[in-house]
Queue: 4 jobs
Job 1
Amino acid sequence: MGRWIAAVQKGFGKKLIRLHSWNAWLVALLAITGLVLVGGFWREILGEGRVWVRWIHIIGGLALLVPVVYYLFLASKHWKQIREKPNQKMNVILVMILLVGWIISGILLWLLRQVGPAVANTALFIHDLLTWVGLPYIIYHSLTRTAWLKDPKKRSIRLSEDAIAKPASVPTGKAAAVTTKPSSAQTPSPFYTRRAFLRSVIGIGLAVSVGPTFIRWLGSSLTTGGGSWEEMAASNPNKMVPDPKPLPASLPPEGGGAQGEFRVYTVTPIPSFDNSNWSFTIDGLVDRPQTWNWEQFLKIKRSVQVSDFHCVTGWSVYKNTWEGIPLNDFLKMAGVKPTAQTIKFYSGDGVYTDSITLEQAQLKDIMVAILHDGKIIPADLGGPVRLVIPKMYAYKSVKWLNRIELIAEDHIGYWEQRGYDKDAWLPDNLS
């Protein structure tokens, strides 16, 4: 084993340079794919390609294990080289914490179904925190340190004492006339080098570009769900009149309100509605197709339920108090024809659709919701009306719901066309 490690450590300096280069490319790949995955703009542009981006991100995260594990075999020799350099020691420790933290939290998110929502929510927060804090630093580190290691005057890797004591003999003849470069002791170093200037520019650029986004993310992550909901409600572009009056069971919401933070994902720009452009329809293979305007819709008998809300990307919001009309009530009002097999849901954005079977629709907690924790649902979160299917992942809970159609054939929804599971059942540890 000792011989094998010695063989691995041979050419230590060049291998350390390559490690920094590999690390820089992998982190850059993960940064780009990660930002694409959370960006609403890219969700619409990429469509089905987003599923491939997700897998590239997962594979890239697993590949990050390679330089981390490889470095462990070089660590003992590297540590000796920097034993008298506390700043470099701290840098190594910080980089390893970032890389290992990313890898572990990413794997936990990948294994959401196995680890459960409590662990996944914590892993998601840690993954995001390490990203916003560590990504600028590790990009800066990888870019500058790769060049730094190539400079023999700066790197900690030195020639052995034998090599210093016994320099190679200088050949005679014309080659002997070649003059040697002056040593660093003979050449005064400038007060502020070009490399130092570039490092500063990179560092300042990363801080300016990433800093404000991180501050906004940290603020939303540390506040309660009610605070963020109130902010979205205050800027809600929907102008529906009158406001629905919550039932006594909605206020105060059970358990004090929803626990967790919603993340806003859309495939189109967020639409807005008012009384003039909003209606709700149930049609297709039904005996009594019906359409309601907003005032009529508010007169339909409502009920209240408390349920958890789980996104396939790894986050959850617990104990949501939803108020609305059970889906089965709409089916009874319309009368389902024997030839109907599928219920198709339409979003008011004009693009998004999804579906469930009539058998799946027998679940009693599927609701067409108009209130959350006793308050209107803002446009960012799918209001004025959204579907809620607690036992399925949230991409089935269509936002801005304005039409239900009963059809005889199967229907593949927006995200199912792009690689998601058609039956979005939660695993046993979530449902």
Job 2
Amino acid sequence: MYVVESKGGAIACMLLALFFLGTWPAILTLLERRGRLPQHTYLDYSITNLLAAVIIALTFGQIGDSKPGMPNFISQLSQDNWPCVLFAMTGGVFLSLGNLSTQYAWAFVGLSVTEVITSSIVVVIGTTLNYFLDDRINKAEILFPGVGCFLIAVCLGSAVHFSNAADNEAKLNGLSNSNKNGTRAVEISKSKETIPNKDRTKDLEDGNAYVEKAKFGTADFLIKVENRRAIKVFGKSTLIGLGITFFAGVSFSVFSPAINLATNDQWGTMKEGVPHLVVYTAFFYFSVSCFVIAIILNIGFLYHPILNLPRSSLKAYLNDWNGRQWALLAGLLCGFGNGFQFMGGQAAGYAAADSVQALPLVSTFWGILLFGEYRKSSRRTYVLLVSMLFMFIVAVGVLMASSGHRK
């Protein structure tokens, strides 16, 4: 079994996790903006998310011989370690609820702000819990100022969202006024029907072809995105999106401490003489429960959709191949990202590994590049956005500097 033991190796794992975990949300957001139902996307994503855990367990978890007190993955499956297995599976349940919630929050609040708020909540709650669970191996005088920076970023993220929402409303009002003057006509589709399969195929292949004629940040662009996207958000309260976002953040706060308990058994739940769960075994059980919850909830949402989404079916999902390869890729990225985060956390402390919650830096890059977020916004929005990102950069640097070394 391969074990990350050096501080440098742990930081390398964190950086890989940071890139993977910041990229997969952008892929799912892209599919939703092109009209693919989130239920279909999340079912595909869940399959490869579990596959990534299996690959990690059968490779890193099986390399070489077992070490004293650290059996290989397959050997550990038959051990009497159910108390810690339940901790790992509880973490998977909360991760699944958080990921499922953010899939809807992205439509309302935007990719960048959603990731900032959820990640900051994770750090404020989850990192504090991990610090005490890890027997304080991280430097408190460095760690908690970093947590404070993330808390400030939450406030700045909310401010960015409200400022940008006001900017978008002003753009749309300006367009409505020009319509009243007879200069142009714009229609916002309120249909709940899905986009015809032929049209959706073209959109998913051509990328942003459907908004090519509208410049990023304009009212035309906002309207054309709304007409194509699966989740219609015009006319809905922004508080809905923020409410979903905060629920997701609280859910995310639980999964890392749960894995910490599963691998290190700080509460002494295992029988004497039974080895602790290795990180690969814990991650496997974690991913299995994440997969089960995702499948149950999303099949239910196919037939009983929320937020006025169109009704679907299992047959329709199986026949929907438009964008499926991207959803499958997103699942792999998320799975490997979580795996690397846990591998780094086991070596340097899970509190320090929460530095990967700086993933909004990556997500914001994709949000601006792919989706035109914050284009043609007000100066106030730009100032708030830069301040938010700056606070994140400071916070992740401080959190990584607090890394300790588990004996």
Job 3
Amino acid sequence: MFHRTTKFLGVSLSLIIINLAAIMERADENLLPSVYKEVSEAFNAGPSDLGYLTFIRNFVQGLASPLAGVLVINYDRPTVLTMGIFCWALSTAAVGASQQFMQAAMWRAINGFGLAIVIPALQSFIADSYKDSVRGAGFGLLSLVGTIGGIGGGVLATIMAGQEFFGMPGWRCAFILMATLSVLIGVLVFLFVVDPKKTNSITHSTGENFDRDELLEKGNGSVSSIWMESWTATKAVIKVPTFQIIVLQGIVGSLPWTAMVFFTMWFELIGFDHSSTAALLSVYAVGCAMGSFLGGLVADRMSQIYPHSGRIMCAQFSAFMGIPFSWFLLKVIPQSVNSYYTFAFTLLLMGLTISWNATAANGPMFAEVVPAKHRTMIYAFDRAFEGSFSSFAAPLVGILSEKMFGYDSKSIDPVKGSVREAFALSQGLLSMMVVPFGLCCLFYTPLYKFFRRDRENARMATLKEEEMF
């Protein structure tokens, strides 16, 4: 009883702090897009330049993500998470203090490196903390609280952006404040979070749920053995067809989400003030938060009814819904401040329906098609491929808006915005949303054939390892 209580308290406290880390991670991600307009004025940068800032962070994050899988082989996940959090906190503060565009770009790249370490470790932590039947809800809860952080970070930065504090522009203060809070969360992670593998091993003496993977990997501390284990895990992950298919859809499906960083700038160009823009984006974020959690719950239920296809159907539904909502939001609704409530209602419904994929399908399915010891690696390589390719979406939106649809940053009124430039930006956004959503829905289809086989193979591999032990 004592062991069970200790394990429960340790897991509960760890999950609380992990969710706090997810809140700060999403808040950090939303900082820059929320102050695009102010950053544009500070550095005299157009949409393509602003897109480059998002590109460089996402691209570095994608390339560096496999490092998370390597680090987790040699260190426990709380240590890895702490290193990543401190890295992103330092770079966030440095972006706020940057005086030149290239300085900001360099620190954004370092920010991507920190996120590359944190995100896969967070995902594998959640995968190991929940059973298969409720893993969608676990990922949904992580996404829900993370989105709350995104709302907080976005609203805080948007509201602070139009003010000054101690003679410093508000957007710079927002970056420094967020970095300080991130450091505090990093300290909590290092001091109090316990890796699920260790909490599982506590019950060894009672014969319950012992994590054999930890013993199998113990003693392999040399550099050569670490890289050999990393290479083995890499091969095991990349050759899984389910992984290949989800990554393929993710490369395309993440393009619209990366392009959405321009929503703040688009609403301000239409003529909405900082508070109205923050409110609209908060409504959208609330919709996405509720939708991601709802999607996880629905998919858990569907996977019990249709074990081999339920999650796939949920993912395809969510991806498809991105097409009509993107079209209605960017093409049908009049781009005027008088359309405020129409925008708000559309954004809420859009968020509720298009945010299911990661929690309903991708995260839970990844956990089922590889042995537990390779989970961090599979999430890391997913971020590597998706992040690297999707990073091109933001600069492409800027380039399309400027070169094809006539966006001119010199024509913008700092207070009233510019309806003409807002329309040009919306055309660029539409191009990077409708088609990718459709392709994403289509690319899930092969999973109906491969997911069942890959899941059975992973279960057999786990059973063989346990028998060997």
Job 4
Amino acid sequence: MRNRPWDEPVRHVRPHPDDLPWDRPPEPADVDPAVLGALLHRHGWQRRGGAPGRYGRWTPPGPAGGGTSLLVPESRAFPDSDDLLGEALGALARSRTPSAREVLISLAVPSDEVRWWRDTPAGPAGAAPWTADDHLRGAARRTLLAAALATRARAGYYGARHRRSAAVLLDDVLVGPATEGRTLTAFVPVTAGRPLAVRLHQALHAAREAVDYRRATGGMDAFDGAVEAGVSRELTEALAALVRGTEGARVAVAWAPGAGVPEGCAPSAEPVEFSPGDLPALREAAARYLRAEPSVPVTVTGAVVRMRRAGPGGEGTVRLRVLAGADVPHVRVTLGEEDYRIAGHAHLVGLPVRVRGRLERRGGFRTLTGASGVVPVQVDEAERDRLLKSLQENLDFFEEACGEA
């Protein structure tokens, strides 16, 4: 065990799940009664009377809901409002109804909700295949990632571009349990994730309209215009994965009641539906986006992390960790003999290189073709030391460069 020096800063530790705010009921003073009522209604709870203008009596969805009820005040106009809210929140925390947990999450972390449904054939006694849950979660994540990519730029095909910054948007998204591989809900915090939810809402409707146009006319033009709304190869592939193996699938975006409806978006939470009959159009669109997205001229600055060539002379392949110039983490470049030698020397002295070329869509925009003009780039001492340390850890990849020095 290593002893920590007394003056070493304390390392930040991720909070334990029991310490997170959504793991306990919110305080009554922090809850808007109107928001609680809207969330109960959204999640299938039924209002069954109550004193008009003062409180409502709510029961959970399903046949088992008859024995449980909540008294929820309509406002804070009466002295007992906080008491009723406290009792209602405590009852939700104790409830075994899945929707109660979802209501508490949305109260603790005001969120737009994204819900997926897959209509899959039921097995014996309603059982679901072992892989159904993984399939649903995988398709749902791909859907969210496609929307996150569209918040960074508009493109028919992203490949490896913008992946890191888009993935950051998903860090704060909460997810509920999948129900027998058929239903899943994600909670997208309004403060950090509203652009993601808006883009997904617009892209889903645009994809639905483009598929309808393709099925009605045979034309694919609508998919070209849908790129501006956030439709891409990544989204069409995600929707195809969601639908595959089902009798139909749906996705709905519901806005956080306390945050209002975003400008330009429909207030309704009606789901957007896709069926197995849509799969040919979705697959054709995915292939079209891949073909149509052009290669991109770039000037990349990157640190050499791998070098390889067949013999002691001639051209070789270099892998760069991108520092600037392209929204991908790494690129692969084939260099002529002189440029290859320059790249090797630059790395040996702890310097990145700058190179011009075209970022090719083939392989996900990970390859730089037509590379030329390789030059070392000056960096500060801290960065140079870090690059030299990287060299020491990866000496086996630089034997050729050392031999040519």
